[in-house]
Every structure is written in structure tokens, then in C-alpha cells.
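Project standup — Tuesday

K.O.: blocked on the structure for the chain from last sprint. Re-posting the sequence here as requested.
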Amino acid sequence: MMKSALITGISGFVGRHLREELLREGWRVFGFDLRPAGENVFVGDLSDRAALTRAAADCQPDAVFHLAGVIKSQDPQAYYESNLFGTLNLLDALMQMEKRPKVILASSSAVYGLTKSPRPITERSPLRPVTEYAVSKAAQEAASLRYHYAFGLDVVVARMFNLLGPGQSPDLACSAFARQIALAEVSDQNEIVTGNLDAKRDFVDVRDAARAFALLAEKSKAGQSYNICSGKAVTIQRCLSKMMSKSKKQLSARVDPARAQKNDIPMQVGSFEKLKKATGWNPRIALNQSLSDLLDDWRKRTRRGDPPSEIK
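H.V.: unblocked you, prediction finished:
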């Protein structure tokens, strides 16, 4: 019998790739999103518990992949309204179902914050969130796991490290670089403006992450957290250099101190051993391929006129 999935935030970066992955694996896929996003997508907001209840009742999912939420905002309250209270609305809606689905909660490595050990972060590492976003995700995790401990709802936490790949928002560093390079190639610009390039991050391709989500729905243990990462730390500078080397145009980089992130964490690298042991997952797509695909995607978007014409 075909399994059914409900993806909140299905039009987003991870949601689009997860939809494709689940369809390949034979799932029937439904979405819940702020905007129309193709077939079988319910339109609504996480603040609307009634809309969430109707969507869950209509599609009767075997698994819910909760990806929707706020990643960047000038208003700190927005993080909590969406990531925490919106999640509570979703979980309350699922609790009303006679057959309760498994919930895969999309969290972030940001919850680990400033780590004191140079060793890869495991799921046992303490949570030391330093940004409003990270605090909201840590709160989201705790509130969601309460539904497992108190009410028996099957909740699994997936902590994604830094994602890369086609379709990524230019709000994130590597995608912002790729966008600037693509625009520079069709203009008289030759300078790529950046923030801090010294930070080291653990990058994983979004398509590998989507595959991890699908496996977690089938093979994970409820009440547990799993890192989705590559296990390798790479500087932002290296990612920029790799993409600039893929351009035929002679480009230079300029660091703008105003673009430096507050509370920026100097290094973060994770361990995916727990995920591998539970599901057999390994990252398959190399960093160089992820960066190439991201840059090629921005070249296509530039030709279509998707981004603004000026370089920011």
C-alpha cells in the first residue's frame, strides 16, 4: 500500500527536493504551504490550527515532515511565533488524528552553538544556542519531544548542518556568492562582496539531506535526534574560491565588515555516525559538485531574470 507524506513548507529549499525524493521512493506526497505549490498542496499558515487539522484529516499521512518555519527575520518574535508556537499548532492538530503519523522535525545544527571541543559534534553534545533563531529551534525540539514523552507521538529530530545545492536562497553565504558570480558574468561587475570568510562549516548537499529525511521516516527511533552532515569542516573562503575558479571571468573578492554575522561561530563540524547506524545513510554528493550545481542553477536563474539585476 502506498504511503502518504505531508510536507510543511513544501515550496522551500528542502521541501522541493524532499518532494522529489519521496515521489521517487513511491510515496504519495501532500504539502502545506503559505502559497500554492503544485498538486496536493494545502494553503495555510502555521498559526491556523484549523487549517492544519483539515490538511492532516484530508491526507491522513503516515509521516509528517515539518520543514516550515522562519530562518531569518529582523523581528526576534517571528522566530518563536513560527518555529515554536506554529509547531505546537501542528502537533496539536496531529494529536486529534485517530491514526497518528510519525513526525520528522527539521531542526538545525545552530542549536549546538559554541562548542568547546574540536571533535565532531554528536547528538550527545550540549546545546548552547547563541542566536534567536537557534534558541527558537532548541525550544521547538524540546516542545516537540514532550509530545513523544507525554503523549506517545512518534517524533524524530533531524538536525541539519549547512546545506548547499540548486534552488538555495541568496540569504545564505554560498548561494549569495553564486548569485553574485552569475550576475558578474553577464555584467561589467568583477567584484564579489562577502562577509567573514574564515569560519569553518560542515556542508551537506540538500539532495543528500532529502534522502536522509526519507530514511528517517522509515528507520529512525522515535524520541531521538540525528545529525545530517558531512563530517568535514571547510572554510567559507574555500567555497568561494572554488566557485570563482569555475568562472571564465576574472573576479576578485572584497570583505565588507557590515556583512559579518553577529555571534558568528568560528567552527562547526558534525558526526553522522548515529544516522548511518540507524539508516545506512552516507553523504554521496561531493562539495565540489554541490557548489557547481549551485552556481549553474544561479546562471539559469539569471538568464530567466529571477534575481534583481543589481549585485548586492
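K.O.: great, moving the ticket to review. Residues 308-312 have pLDDT under 50 and may be disordered. The longest helix spans residues 76-95.
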